[in-house]
Model the fold of this input.
Amino acid sequence: MREIEPSEPDHNIDWFIFISTAVIVAGICVPLILFPEAGARSVSAAYDFVTEKFGVFYIWAGIAALTFLLWLALGRHGRVRLGPEGCRPEYSTFSWAAMLFCGGIGSTILYWGTIEWAYYYQSPPFGEVPGSPAAIQWAMSYPLFHWGMTAWSFYCLPAVAMGHAYHVQNQASLRVSTACRAAIGAHADGVLGRTLDLVFMVGLVGAAATGVGLSAPLITTSITRFADVPEASYMSLVAVLLGTVIFAASVYVGLDRGIRRLSNLNVILALIFLAFVLIAGPTLFLLKASTDSVGFTIQNFIRMNTWTDPLSDSGFVESWTIFYWAWWLALGPFMGIFVSKISRGRTIREMIFGMLGYGSVGCVLFIAVLGNFALHAQLGDLVPVVDILNERGAPAAIAEILASLPSGRWLLPFFAAICLIFMATTYDSASYTLASCATRRLPTDRHPARWNRVFWALSLGLVPITLLILGGLRSLQTAAVVVSLPLILVGILMCVSLVKGLRSAEAAALPPPPDGAPP
Done:
């Protein structure tokens, strides 16, 4: 481990990308803060337009990404190692899995893993009767789908494309444009490449805001429920500011001493938390419900991937599946840059199966334990989860669910601490990624300038504060959906570029023909 992390000098900053992104983010946030009512109407209209007009493309994108990755992993290209011949992984499998999971998920899995089922319980898919056994079955299973392999494919595809461009093709920087270089050629250094990088950076800031905006109220509600004090609106803003300070400090320290250690700590604390809920809660019900929901999800996996609801037009797909795919898609290039940086020495097959496997299994653990415990509390009349959700909101419902455990009140500050660290591990990774994209050249043994990382860490706190002022889940969903639409095209370019790069590297590795042989 390096004690002093080598950083790039200030003159290596891409000031066009840096300043343009900062100006665009400020230009969006300031008017929304000054005119919140008009801003709320605007974001709602934007969400409806994108999901209704372009929703089916997100469904296609999920199917295509998963299919493409399986083709890569199971074929001859899966043996390609990211780095020179003979290089080994820089991080242990545990640390690597912890960093990619914490970086990609954050505390949103604690939020949605506990309460997502309750939305489907009331408004189930496929026209089922709310609260019926069939509705409960889908409510237990759809969260597993939304956090499963198709979702992680949106993260994995950019990671493989960028990892190959950076470690095998020896591209000079970690950017979206460099991952598309084989497809767009010299345009990667021109207007098109700059536009791709700019779209990615603005998209990452918007998508990251969704997670922070969900996490902050969860932290404050858990603390106020524990302390038995009324919750004030400013508390969520304080939580955002506190989280911003933590991940600014972590990203300043760097990958090894900051992000890696924080991720390892967070995974250990989260596993302890899940084990307590499993043992102290209705253990047999949790095991049986988890087994049943996993089996039901596997049986209906293709149906869930292809359902567009063309007849009833219930809005379920637009409100949930398309929102999730848009959110994962918007964060995809960020995870691509971050995971490619920490994956030197691993094969493409290891990378794909590791991300799809560790990521999906980790999410299943949270949903199976927390979601099914919450469902048991509702069905057993221990906590009126649905009523609290509708009257006081999801954070209050989650706090009451956890408080119903033995010594549950004392579990709440521990839960809030995990949320805070989860939020920090995700957004210090995002800050590192933004700083990488705003750096012209980034050799594999170097890191973005520390002040550059800290600047983006502080900037990531601005958009969530804006969305908290606007209020409502729709504002958070819109931030993810709207910024993700152009990234569907970016994903296509990455696929084309990756295939070209793999074939080019394969051809270069062939021995030269013997003298006199026909060309």
Observations:
- The chain has 22 helices and no strands.
